[in-house]
Amino acid sequence: MSSESFDYVVVGAGSAGAVIANRLSADPQVRVCLLEAGKPDKSRMIDTPLGIVGLLRFRTYNWYYYTAPQAELNGRRLYWPRGKTLGGSSSINAMIYMRGHPEDYDEWRDLGAPGWGWDDVFPLFRAMERNERGADAFHGDAGELNVADLGNPNPLGAAFVRAGVEAGLPANADFNGAVQEGVGPYQVTQRDGKRFSASRAFLDGIRQRANLRIETGAHVARVLLEGTRAVGVEVRIGGAMRRIGARREVILCGGAINSPQLLMLSGIGPRAALARAGVELAHELPGVGANLQDHLDVSVIVPDRSGNSVGVAGNTLPRAVAAFFEYRRKGTGMFQSNAAEAGGFARLTPESRRPEIQFHFLPTILRDHGRKPVWGHGMTLHCCQLRPKSRGSITLRSADPFAEPVIDPAYLSHADDLGELLAGLKLGRRIMASPAIAALSGGREIDPGPARQDDAALVDFIRASAETIYHPVGTCRMGQDEMAVVDDRLRVRGIDGLRVADASIMPRLIGGNTNAPCMVIGEKAAGFIRAERNEPAAAMV
């Protein structure tokens, strides 16, 4: 088995891993290896914002996971797309730029993560951002991550905003500004009408660095340990197994599914679960794979009579062809859409300190993540619960490093979650029945539909149709108690030379989309590593 050594080995080139590889390789005195299981991201489907339809439908750049059967969702196995390419899920997502609510980060700090409060992370968000609106008290314009207003937005988005105001929500042109609550257009990670992923922001400009190796098609099988120190990884590249050494550190950035899986495959995790999978225990950490949280989502769908929605109907082909050539020529038009063009945040009671519900508005009919086209023209409002109390898990299916893990989010296993999601659905329904939308829909509703009016019928609808909105976190939780996997500097407890830096370290799910927060997690990790470069690494006891 061939081998080679670097100072740092970064596993996963997603939103956090791309940032870390960029920052560490800025020092020419160190060698960095960035390993990505997926293919390169040079693809028109990735660059074209509306290409998200194909990215979610096909396996080319997508892990294409499914959950275990969900007891509270009629035993359904839910589809969980995750990015499998440079940029990770930032290369297949809806490009929404969102930080979350400031109190989310203060909550992390108060749960045992000093240095992770809003005052600690806000400067990193601002410094990373290149907002096309310009710099102000809340935004930066000198960072690598391009943030833009959507070009050529569909007019139905403005109708949704008017409907939200009619339903009692304030208009909000900046969800990352002074206040999160309200309805408005989303800003997106795009530049010149193209997707601007973590790969575009943090890798494209540094690929020529002599001290940086980027390997795609590199599926890491396990972390190599010598006693309680990580010394490298075993990885399959081009069908051959190789060992890549890490003189200083291995940093796992595989996300909420792959990072705990890799720890457990390496013998780090809950004793009983590893024994069931046939993995020899190297270091017991009972919290690995626990604490899985995700945003569960349910939709309101109404027809559209304006002709502005994107639908499958008799005029679809000529419209699509014309739009495609417009995008090829000018980078404008329908193909510039990120699909979820507008949305909002709502508190369910006046006493709530922060929103419990987020909305994503799409000028199309969307079911099953767009994998099955629906005939007709319409509008979809996704309603998701932001802070679920349900907790699931990631466990090993077997000791085979190339077998998918068991993903069990345990949706709605806490009774409070169903009540909040039901309230969010009712509010979303009220918005979509408001005059600004009713004038376009004729007052008709497709989903949940006129036959479903009482709570029991709406609960049945939730159980039959709710889906992920793609924000799994928490499975390598940061903290100080016995179930914490990493400390506040993201070091794996009890193991030297090993960190985790991705959505899995979040103690609790933030109230919003998770892409930008993962980039900041990468920024924090890189800062910790640089600060400790000349200090002996100390394992947490």
UniProtKB/TrEMBL annotation:
InterPro entries: FAD/NAD-bd_sf, GMC_OxRdtase, GMC_OxRdtase_N, GMC_OxRtase_C. One of its GO terms (molecular function) is oxidoreductase activity, acting on CH-OH group of donors. It comes from the Bacteria. FAD binds at residue 220. The keyword Flavoprotein applies. The keyword Cytoplasm does not apply. Its cofactor is FAD. Keywords: FAD, Flavoprotein. NCBIfam families: PRK02106.1. Belongs to the GMC oxidoreductase family. This is Putative dehydrogenase. It comes from Acidiphilium multivorum (strain DSM 11245 / JCM 8867 / NBRC 100883 / AIU 301).
